[in-house]
Amino acid sequence: MSKRKVKETHMPVGECISQYGYIFQVQMILRERFCHQRLPEKPVGMESQHKHLLELLRRTAVHGESNSVLIVGPRGSGKTMLLNCVLRELLEVKDVNKNVLPVHLNGLLQTDDRIALKEITRQLNLENVVGDKVFGSFAENLAFLLEALKKGDRSSSRPVLFILDEFDLFAHHKNQTLLYNLLDVSQSAQAPVAVIGLTCRLDVLELLEKRVKSRFSHRQIHLLSSLSFIQYLDNVRSQLSLPQDFPDTNFYDEWNDGIKTLCEDQSVVDVLQRHYNSSKDFRSLHLLLMLALSRVSASKPAIKPTDLLEASRVCMVDSKANILHGLSILELCLIIAMKHLNDIYEGEPFNFQMVHNEFKKFLQRKSHSIHNFDKPVVIKAFEHLQQLELIKSMDSSTAKIQKEYQLMKLLLDHSQIMEALQKYPQCPTDVKQWAMSAFG
Amino acid sequence: MVRYFTRLRMRRIYKWGGRPYIFDRKLKSYGFEYLNMSVEGQEAVTTVTPGQYILIEGNDDEYPFVAKLLKFFGDESHKQKKALVQWFLRLSEVPQNKKLLLGRSPHPQEIFYYLGRACDNEINAESILAQCPGCGIIKIYCYPLFLHNFDAETPQWALEVKVESCVPRNMTRQTALLNTRPLNPEASCTNVSGGNTVQLTNKVSPARHKKSLEHEKPSKAPPSQNLPNPDDAGPGSNSGLEKELRNSVCFPCFLIQVTPSTPRHATPSIPSRTVPARQPGNILEEARARLHVSSVPESLPCREQEFQDIYNFVESKVMDGTGGCMYISGVPGTGKTATIHEVIRCLQHASDMDEIPTFRFIEINGMKMTDPHQAYVQILQKLTDQKVTADHAAALLEKRFSNPAPKKETTVLLVDELDLLWTRKQNVMYNLFDWPTRRHARLVVLTIANTMDLPERIMINRVASRLGLTRMSFQPYSFKQLQQIITSRLNKVKAFEEDALQLVSRKVAALSGDARRCLDICRRATEICEHSTSHPSSAGLVRMNHVMEALDEMFSSSYITAIRCASLQEQLFLRAVIAEFRRLGLEEATFQQVFVQHRALSRVEGLQPISVSEGLAVCQRLGACRLLLLEASRLDMLQRVRLNVSQDDVLYALKAVRD
Known about the structure:
With 440 residues, chain A is α/β, with parallel strands linked by helices.
């Protein structure tokens, strides 16, 4: 499709094909950066943490010293990225390469110890060692694994790196059996292990039981980015720039210059500042840049400030106001009635009958353009709002009370309603006036 | 308790044979000449007479005990059938240290004369399974293995017997009884002497089996002294070792053939490394290796009194052959398990030196099992290497500990993390504490848990009562003790400044008294010290500032740093939360209420107000870090928000940011 577009613009054929090729390559490179979470050459802004973790794991790999460590940081702060960088660097060392056994577990996947044990056995390639006896009961599995670890010793067996993603979820397993055993191995003269936990909870140690806590070495690596806005801007620039080894130098220069001017544009800086104020993590930044990148094509071979503004608008849009745009006039009227009820009763819950009364009052007194609706139609509209979760039932036992008298609460803020009304296509004036009047 | 039996049980019938004679007039017991055994519903009758070697029902079906029958006796009613025996040990039953004393690798079918005090030589005649079957040529070395003046160089005597009957391995009750032919001791005796197959070891016979040749070691014992005399042999002679030995020689003795089968429960291990682990290179690395919790110290300082108490307790029980329970409590990291392991190590050493009888040590850990009932399975597996279900294991253990069994050695059972063995009916705990009270159990149970008043808190009366009052509590280490522990571990490796050590131990003692924590901090301090200099080898001693840094890392709360590093909107939201709390006078508000404040605050700060969706995202991010505590997110705007940090901390952190 884009090829057809290319032909429409009057360019020499050869140039436009090469242009198309370069744009395609740019898209590939940048998309890989933004979506596949490709590891950077060197983690930015966490040098000391990187060194600490690398040293720790290197000692486990080389000296067979057992360790345990927690990497703590908010979501999107680069915990997994740091760990993967360290592992990549570690596995490049010749002695270490064949000598470590990484085991990756995730608290969201291994939701209990039984599954986790099976996964560990599988990743350690132990399942075929004694025939089919391994995947027996949970108890056998545990005994089996513990014995395997117990047989090892510091100098001769391969170090095992247990990587527990979403570490806090493992603490919710029954008795914390898995954590106790892993940490116990790390504190006793058995096979060398390193237990690396990744979590975003700052209070994770309080989740551990006292025996488990005592066995944990209390090493915590905090990843709290104290990134300044200047660094954030630099980062945006480097993320959008092409790598040195891009085939065409002309295009490379052109693109990178374009990015440089883009990052100096005041409106772009404002947009980025707004994003930076909202959150410093790179994942939301990547989302923004990805949206901007998708607007690049062969006919428009550069990111313009308007692209970024548009992308930012898409990112920042309020999801509920969006839903309101799609409602019918009747549903919108019900929402306005609820808003007035909220004003009158100071946020107390309401039921359908109250809303209906309010709506009828409006029809009688002020409405010129809206006709009366039958009650079943209004009920249907009310139920639709409930399905959209714009209103929420307050009492749990729904079966006992008649539909009309169930207590409800509105899950919308006044500002959202007013904003939606402003943008609502062809909204009748009397409805708007009703919404803005102080009392229904 | 449901009892399961995996094999069909056969009822055997035992009948006295021959003329009774008065054995003991006072006890009104009678002696008998022989015993007829038959299986219900089958014709075959086996007769055993004193002097024969017999198999006796043991702890598991595959390996019955071996003994020589000395005498039968019973009471007037002929209901009670008893027998006197002389025990023999099979190779698998000989303790490892005794095997080493032999100074050679014994033939798997050898049996050893047993002269232990600990073992009752009076058995129930109905536990006799069969005569000893045998096969091929068997050599018997009879060492009085349990005498103190054991001399490996001079075996008392040795013999070699040719036996014709052959029995398949894995003897079960049925096969043992049905497949063996009754052997007339007199006949074999003459056969043996007539055929000249009984040989002293130093007289090399041309007919000697090649296999036995390999295992043989020339004896220095004078042959004339120990020459077996067939005429002297007779049933019922049990006077003294010398005579006993001679008697044994005159009767062919059979062993259950135990071929080394492939182990059923082979466990794999972690693959071994291709490059050996590097040894510590400099002083700091050496110190770090020594300070690792896993490294076994040469001694356990600061627990001398506890060590002595536990040692005395276990030693006395092992010496007397009785049972008992002990409860040990203490907060984590106070050396409970380490002390017990040390005690057991010392006791094992003592039993190797023959100062105390041998005993078995078994360890289970409540945290290392998935269900309290797995305790039975693990105990049984460690005792007998059987793998059965929990209910069956409980039944087998019950039988093992309540029935008088010959040759039983004391079992020392360590139950770590006792509180996890709690069940609603508490039957696991009940059994664990009930078994030691049985007369024949010979079980010493040492239990460990963290809470001092665990028996009063979670145990019902009958369990707590059986646990008894032998309690011990390990106090948290004081700073002096911690300092001593580190110093003794370092063992003259000069890596720390004296003040630095003192700081660590004082800090840890003030917080928890956990030795693990103390060691971990020291280890971290050595790392910091190493990194502080450009070249690792030039690093000097670990100083105060290194230790301070390590302590800071481990003990300081990260909330304040987290708030300082949060984004502007997140900080604003936290301020809005506090503002709303102050307005309401409550420590709780809904998101909707907070968001109104947030909007007002952002206007004051001159920021563009954010949409509700964004506000919710900010709120969720703070909730994921647990700076805020939130309700379930499906409540949307109505979810309630609480602070997980004190308001002062938040204000302090935010104030520092603005300054």
